[in-house]
Amino acid sequence: MTALTDLHTHSDASDGVLAPAALAAAAAAAGLRAFALTDHDTVDGLAEAEQACAALGVRLVPGIEVSAKWAGNTVHVLGIGIDPAAPSLAAGLAALRAARRARGAKIAEKLIGLGHGEAVARARGTAGRAELTRTHFAAGLVASGACRDTAEAFTRFLGRGRKAFVAGDWPPLEQACTLIAAAGGRASLAHPLRYQLSSGALRRLVGAFRDAGGAALEVVTGRPDPQRIATLANAARAAGLAATAGSDFHAPGAPWSALGALSPLPEDLTDLGAVFA
Ligand code: AMP
Ligand code: MN
Ligand code: MN
Ligand code: MN
Q: Domain 5-93+171-275 adopts which CATH fold?
């Protein structure tokens, strides 16, 4: 079940635990030939990853995971094979950073109002130079003893509609796709089944994504689940989209999101990762 390419990973430039160089070393150790670093709304980790990959003989696919809005929902769009130096990226990245920073400040304010100032301080410490994500706030809530684990932090505070939830002011889906295409990347709709949409709404999302120039659906991600893979493969076929497979790796230790631990993509689908293997 170990794949040769993994098109969805995070470093500590966003909410991953490993520094980009350590991620590259872990990818090499996992037997990957190529992987995409797809940090949330930033390309800050790519230069370090590229340098480490060159020394390790692993191919880095420069990527990003862009937060976007569609019909009132937050969705994530992977940009695969972007040029991080593309001049067209700068303005979009600045807007994403500003949206993340503003939302982070509001979440912090809510948590402080709820008496969890220590959790906020710890979240800021964990984030370091990275912009704050909910993963950092969850880590802060656990480290301060306010929550037993990350799951509890999301159920009680950070999940949609919970006490410290703040919706991000993300760009519309179409804009996210344009940003990726203008930087020379292919867009893949990340973990389409994680948005808790009805099947009709999911079909509309996939249609809107394709019409916006989207290239692929992330058909394989997370726990091996033949039924989910079949559902997403059918959605990709129906929309005439290609497919990607990615672990969404954030930290060592979670077996269902280990680097390269991916079920094979159905053979009839075009795998965007095949050209990188
Ligand atoms: P953000 O982009 O700041 O809203 O943070 C989203 C990130 O939080 C995702 O990329 C996941 O890494 C993490 N996340 C979201 N929901 C959960 C959850 N229920 N349990 C653990 N991590 C989660
Ligand atoms: Mn994440
Ligand atoms: Mn995501
Ligand atoms: Mn991700």
A: TIM Barrel (3.20.20)
